[in-house]
Structure formats: structure tokens, C-alpha cells
């Protein structure tokens, strides 16, 4: 018979076997005293973080659920118990390289290459467990590389139990596969990356190898003190913040959807979102930290999202969830997912029917399918497959709109299942677009195309959009357009840090003096995300005369930004961004060093080569950097274009024309390349060819004001030429 226990609040609950598995008589077998002693021991001998074993003394049920979760198995030492792959010497190829997995002198190991040139690396850790398990190879200087050949852990009947090469353009040793740089912060607890640019080495360390209790709840030392009775009245039982945001939900009269009784006040979304988002890490997470003091998420626009805000690249969940009506209604992660196992709280549609009445929604009149043939998520949370086998669901919870998705080229739940059905027939079976949320998505998609050309539409809906969608559109506004500038200025006062940061990003296009005049009021903004967007935009813009307060605020801003950048110089993109900042501040030597640091990390990264060419313009080094850029990526339109402009300045016009043509051929959607190529053609006396290029870019919908004006000018010039020729005749 199950025992009935009570927790500190007096609430009754059923104890599991682990909780009541003590036996015998005597003082130490008194449960409450045992707990106090255990907690005091943990406090005394856990100076950094509390291990999960300490949590299990009181929270055995939760720990048992966690032990089966993806979090517990996010990363573990490679042992016979944890390794799922078959290390039998079988070979799998990735980007023409052979990967052989064996057990040898180094234990679990991988040999990369063939014959005498092959190099063998120890596999120290497994990474994940389903549907794929990757392996971390130990490289010199503290670096671990996530091998892009993974073991497919799915059953053989589902196509699994095989070595599987991931689909990627990256080389196996690219920083994008480096555990320390790209993976570690979300797969382990309290990670310190400790990268040293001078030696290009890591001294990375963590408190727990996997995603432990502390990764979500924060440091538990004060909680253990509370449990031991040292601080009986401590807020949140000693934790910095509560994660209990599930809330109370109720159906009111004539409502088919439950509503939340009070808004979330805890830190749950921030706790989950620290990892479940594609973002730049801008600070260390702790339970009381504001989400946007820790991460700066990728906004829902191309190329990471489709035009309608649907997930495209691997962006995880936050970016789509923040667009949703669920988030607006107060839904949090634990309403749908059990927080320790991360599994859904119910099978099938049961998780949705917690808040949506079954007699309204789980019926054919709503879902337009035979009962049992399709679930809620099939229509409202379509899945996208990443890494070849891993399906992730979109968390916007949208109403399917096959006509919109077809026009945008984005996936759609209806068309994915009914690909053979003509659009006209499919549309007949669906209701007309009358839902306000559906119309908002359509309007958002319209505005996201072409940089918010329709300001009337934008202003009519902007205040009804979720902050992340509003930010996505705002970042595309132009400070050069008077009407758009006024909107930008008003949004710099938004209560949402996402919106304010997007406004700062848009003003990055403005002239230097204008940037300072419009943005200096945000120097002391309370959001770190806003300040980190602001620092590079204001670098080099401040007037000579500043007030004492402004000087202090600007110095603090730059110090904070530089400190952040210096912790992430293992990323080639961040090294290049930091170089741009140093360049704006007039620190040319520091900028050049950082561009070279970016190249050292990723030799195929074209941008820093081009920046170094710009820094050395007029010297012999300029041509060398441009040629290295082209060698780094022969398909780089930017490299071809800049090399073409170099030959223009050198008055080698045949070479120039070839380079500019190559840039246009590689990226015909870039109007600046069409413009440059057309000017070069006209200068060579090929006016008709220049007009053809400009007409082509216009017909593809990629024209800019510059290309349109140039086309008009060249048409007039041709008309005059033809009229003159007729007169001569």
C-alpha cells in the first residue's frame, strides 16, 4: 500500500518507493533529521554547485523522471552504458572523407581520412541519444569536435541502427561543429568556455556534464539551507526565483477555451528559453535574470524563417512560440510538457484538450477529418525535419493557410498531406480566411516581403502584432524614409526590449550624426540586449563635446560590449563583428588583428578577407587579400564583385568586366551587383547589354531605386542614340 506523505506546506501526496525505502529504528532513521543532516553536509561540502544526487534525497520522483529525459542524456562520458553506436570498424563518408569508428588504444575512437594520412582521435563523450547520437572527439588545445557522422538510434524498422552522415556544407573541423563554441553552453551546466585567442586554446569546464537540476533552477545551496531549517521563511524556498508558472486555468460561461486566471510571474520561460532558441548569448543565465539580458534571439524573418514566420532553419522553439496566441494567452512550457521528463502531459490530443473543449474542437466539424485520422498538432504544429531524421514542430500554433504558403513557397500542413489535391479543391474544403490571427499572419507575410513597402498596412496592424513580429518588421524599416523614420522613433520607446533593439538595428543604416542624435537617449537602457545592439551602432559617432554624464554612460557601454566580445572570440562571426566595432572606433590595428583571428578560425569565411583588403587599399596587400577571398570561396559573389572593382580602379577593364559579370551571375538577386555590372557594360560601349541586365533584375522583382533610375537613364540614352542614328541616315 502506498504511503501518504506531506511536504513543507502541508500538502498531501503519495510517496514513491524511493522516498519511503528507509528501514530500521534509531535516531538517524528519522526522516526529517536525516534530511537536515544531508542538507547541512551538502552545504558544507558543495562550494560551487549542488549535485543532482543531493536533490534526489527529497525529490526522488522528479529526479527519476529527469533521468529518462533528453536533459539528463544531453552529454555523458563515453562508456559501454552510454554509447549507442556500433564501433566495429565500419566506415561512413562525409564530404569525401572516411570516418571509421573503432575501439582501440584510445578507447572509443574515430579515424578520419584514409591510409597513412588518417588521424585518430579519442571519443570522450556522447552527445544526445535520440534520434541521433553524436560523439565528441578530443582535439589538441582543449578543443572538442562534434563528429558530423552520427549514430541513428531509431529502430531498424524505422531506418535506424546505422551510421549517418549529417547534411551540411561545413567541413568536419569547422567551428560550427566545435563543442566548446557551438554546443557546450546548452548541453552542460554552469559552463565556463575559457577560450584564449593568443594560443587558440580552450580550458573549458562545467559543474555538471549534462543539463542538471541547477541548469534550470539555479544554485540550490540556499534551498538546502532552507530545507535544513536554517532559513525557514526564505522566499521561493531558497531559490532565486520560482519556476512554477503553470497557473490556474478555468472555463468561463460560453467559452470553449480555458483562460488563465493570473499572468505568469516566475522565471520558467526564461529558464527554458536560455537554450531553446537560436540566439546570441549575451550574458550568464540565472533564474532572476531577464531573458533578454541573457540571449538576443534571431528574429522571425528570412533566411532563418519563412516569410510567414514559420521555422525554416534550425531555430528551436522560442522564436515561433513568441509569435503565438498561446504565449499571448499566458501558456508556458509546463502547461504542455512535464518539466522534468519534458514529455507531453497527455497522449495525442489530450494535451490540447486540457484547455480546448473536446466537444468543440475534437469533432469533424472543426478539424474536417475523420475521427482519429489526424491530430491537433498535425494541422496546427507542422513538423520540419532537421539533420535528416529529427522532426521539430513549429510552435506558432497557426491555422493552416495553403493558399498563402503556396504563394510564399513555404510548407503547409494541408498541402503536405494532400499534395495530390488541386488547390481549388483544397480551398473549397477549408473555411474562408476570416480568423483575425490568420489575417495577421497574411499581413505580416505581405509586409515582410520587400522591407515594409506598405506603410499604411504596417501602421494599421503593428500594434496588434506580437513584440517579436513587430521587431522583425521594425528591423527592416529605413531611417532614410521620413514616414518610416517617425515610426522608428516612436518604437524606440516601446516597453518591449525586442522592439527597442530592432529599432536600434534599423538606425544602423543612418548617417553617423543622425545615429547619435536619435539613439543616445538609450545609453542607459535597462535591457542588456538593447545596449549590446547600441554599442556597435554608436561606435565612432559621438560628437567631440559630451556632457560628463554622457561620457560616463558611453564609456560604460563600450566597456560592457568589449567585455562580452572578448569572451566569444572563438566564434569567427563574433571576431569579425568585434573588428567592425574597433574599425568604427578608429582602432585599425586591433581591427586588422581581429579580422585575421576570424580567418584563423574559419579559412572559408570571406568577409574578413574583404575587410582586410579595404584596410590595405592602395597597397600590394589589397590584391593579395582579394585573391585569397576568392580562393576561400569560389562561389562568393562578394569576392568576385570586390575583385572586379579593384580592376576598375587599376583600369584593367576587361578583367573588371569579367569579375562584375561573375558576381551578377552568382547572385542575380543582389541589385548592387546588377548596377555595377551594367555601369561597366555601358562604359565599354555595350549599352544594350547593360539595359538587358537591368531589365532582368527588374523582371525578377529585385530592382532597387538605383537600378530603376539607371535603367530609365539608359533607356533615354538609347532613345537619343537611335534618334541620332536615324537623323544621320
Q: Quick gist of this model?
A:
By secondary structure, this protein is an alpha+beta fold.
Would you give an account of this structure?
This protein has 729 residues and is α+β, with helices and mostly antiparallel strands. Among the domains are: 67 residues, no CATH class; 136 residues, no CATH class; 183 residues, no CATH class. Helix content is 43%, strand content 10%. Strands 3, 4, 5, 6, 7, 8, 9, 10 and 11 form a nine-stranded antiparallel sheet that branches. It starts with a strand and ends with a helix.
Reconstruct the topology from this structure.
Layout (H helix, E strand, L loop, with lengths): L3 E3 L5 E3 L16 H15 L6 H5 L3 H8 L7 E3 L13 E4 L2 E8 L2 E6 L6 E9 L4 E7 L5 E3 L2 E4 L9 E4 L13 H9 L7 E2 L4 E2 L10 H5 L3 H7 L21 E2 L8 E2 L7 H6 L5 E3 L13 E3 L20 H4 L3 H4 L4 H4 L21 H4 L2 H4 L8 H5 L2 E4 L3 E4 L8 H7 L4 H5 L5 H6 L7 H13 L6 H7 L5 H8 L7 H10 L5 H11 L4 H8 L8 H11 L9 H19 L5 H13 L3 H14 L4 H10 L4 H13 L4 H13 L3 H14 L4 H13 L3 H13 L5 H24 L1
Antiparallel strand pairs: 1-2, 3-7, 4-5, 5-6, 6-7, 7-8, 8-9, 8-10, 10-11, 12-13, 14-15, 16-17, 18-19
Helix pairs in contact: 1-6, 19-21, 21-23, 23-24, 25-26, 26-27, 27-28, 28-29, 29-30, 30-31, 31-32, 32-33
